[in-house]
Design a protein that fits this description.
- Helices cover about 45% and strands about 15% of the residues.
- The chain is an alpha+beta fold.
- It has three domains: about 90 residues, Acyl-CoA dehydrogenase/oxidase, N-terminal domain (Butyryl-Coa Dehydrogenase, subunit A, domain 1, Orthogonal Bundle); about 120 residues, Butyryl-CoA Dehydrogenase, subunit A, domain 2 (Beta Barrel), CATH 2.40.110; about 140 residues, Butyryl-CoA Dehydrogenase, subunit A, domain 3 (Up-down Bundle).
- β2 and β3 form a beta hairpin.
- The termini are far apart.
- The structure holds flavin-adenine dinucleotide (FAD).
- The site of flavin-adenine dinucleotide (FAD) has 23 residues, from β1 and α13.
């Protein structure tokens, strides 16, 4: 098996790298940072993003009829990797809502939403979690009642990242009030300017002081979203009514696929190696220490495993296959690697490594200390590692479903 990219893909990588070093000036990076802090893109960033789109580097693997380039998923991975590494920009992988629409939408929905997502005229936030159900997503209570050609929505979502800058929400709701658990759920694509929707901020640990520009765990805020009899057209339904569990799980799996998924967790390894090679006197002292060298090398090996797991998911997506447990395996290993490496780097750097962004003696703008603060959330959001492990056990290893807490343990016959 050959894991190498083709010469054409490597040539494309070089082109993207050249573009980045030319266009990503400190001003553009500052504008891009605004978005990461939940304040939308500044004008210079918007211009560069438009340039990236005009070159066909956004949605490279999405079908041409919906505004993509019809290219290979693995080629898109090369582009994704470079833009995410440079400024945490996602150029058409997961996280946009569009892969789920391509997988489950009608022709009209694909033709309407996907090109607009590519042009960033439509930006989705993800409305899955609720105060009483995060891991246990089948307990969704937010309700949508069919009223002729409309749905009336009432309920609440929580941790809805970027709701304050999104035009639409990808909303998992209960459409059958009599239903339980996975049945009777549906997905609605809801415009955020619908009357009856209120967004309230939930600040994260990264709020004060804000993280440096190259931080991967950088969400300053997420949100609560309230629906008070918000009404939308029935045509907002994605997939069939009542099929929301399958539609949303497919969407979640596709959303997890992309270079961003492993880079969130391994970019610090790259930063650490680059910093150790730098002229910083503190780095010079550390890089000659055999223990430091061993630890960094070990971490680097894990980082490569994270990348290979992501590439396996990319390869499954490219072949049009269904994920069984592979996305979950990646979602366990990479975030836990991020936790281990950020803790390790914190220990290696000592007290200077604890200083946050803005402190004069910090290391690399405080990126390692912010990483230590933020790494944990990645083991929870987008499906927690404990729940992912359970999915691997059930779907990957075919083990029986774990008994629900409080259920009586099975006893031997006759006991
Ligand atoms: C920064 C951030 C951004 C987020 N962005 C979004 C977003 O944009 N949209 C969205 O919909 N959601 C988002 N989330 C929510 C995220 O998906 C949930 O936090 C996650 O699903 C866990 O749900 P919970 O917080 O309710 O925790 P709980 O479900 O209460 O879980 C608490 C702990 O118990 C463990 N646990 C729960 N059930 C089991 C079980 N059966 N077996 C073993 N362990 C179990 C969990 O692993 C976890 O460690 C975000 C969360 C964070 C932190």
């Amino acid at each position: 098996m050959d894991f190498a990219f083709t010469p054409d893909e490597e040539a494309l990588r070089a082109k993207v790298q050249a573009f980045i070093s030319e266009q990503f000036t400190p001003e553009v990076l500052a504008d891009l940072q605004r978005h990461k802090l939940g304040r939308g893109f500044g004008p210079r960033a918007a211009q560069v993003l438009e340039e990236i789109r005009a070159r066909g580097w956004v949605a490279y693997s999405w079908p041409r009829e919906y505004g993509g380039q019809g290219g290979k998923r693995t080629t898109q991975f090369v582009i994704e990797e470079e833009f995410f590494r440079a400024a945490q920009i996602v150029v058409g992988g997961g996280g946009t809502g569009a892969p789920a629409i391509l997988a489950s939408g009608t022709e009209e929905q694909k033709a309407y939403y996907v090109p607009r997502v590519i042009r960033r005229e439509i930006v989705f936030c993800m409305g899955y979690s609720e105060p009483q159900c995060g891991s246990d997503l089948a307990g969704v209570r937010c309700r949508a009642t069919r009223m002729g050609e409309r749905y009336r929505i009432s309920g609440q979502k929580i941790y809805t990242t970027n709701a304050q800058v999104s035009t639409h929400i990808f909303l998992l709701v209960r459409t059958d009030p009599e239903s339980r658990r996975h049945k009777g759920l549906s997905v609605l694509l809801v415009p955020m300017d619908t009357p009856g929707i209120t967004v309230r901020p939930l600040l994260t640990i990264q709020n004060e002081p804000g993280p440096p520009a190259n931080a991967t765990y950088a969400e300053e805020r997420t949100n609560e979203v309230f629906f008070d009899d918000a009404e939308v057209a029935a045509s907002c339904l994605l997939g069939a009514e009542g099929d929301g569990w399958a539609v949303s799980q497919r969407g979640l799996n596709l959303d997890r696929v992309g270079a961003f998924r492993h880079l969130i967790s391994v970019q610090r390894d790259e930063d650490m190696v680059n910093w150790l090679k730098s002229g910083d006197a503190r780095a010079a002292r550390l890089r000659d220490d055999p223990v430091v060298r061993d630890k960094v090398a070990e971490s680097w090996i894990e980082a490569q495993v994270c990348r290979l797991l992501t590439m396996r998911s990319i390869s499954i997506e490219q072949r049009g296959g269904d994920f069984v447990y592979e996305g979950s395996a990646e979602k366990v290993f990479a975030p836990e690697h991020g936790m281990r490496s950020s803790e390790l780097f914190g220990q290696l750097l000592g007290p200077f490594g604890q200083l946050l962004h803005g402190s004069p003696d910090n290391v690399e703008g405080g990126v390692f200390s912010h990483s230590q603060l933020g790494a944990f959330q990645s083991t929870v959001n987008h499906g927690s590692v404990q729940v992912m492990r359970d999915q691997i056990a059930r779907k990957g290893l075919d083990l029986p479903r774990a008994p629900r807490p409080g259920a009586r343990p099975a006893t031997a016959r006759g006991a």
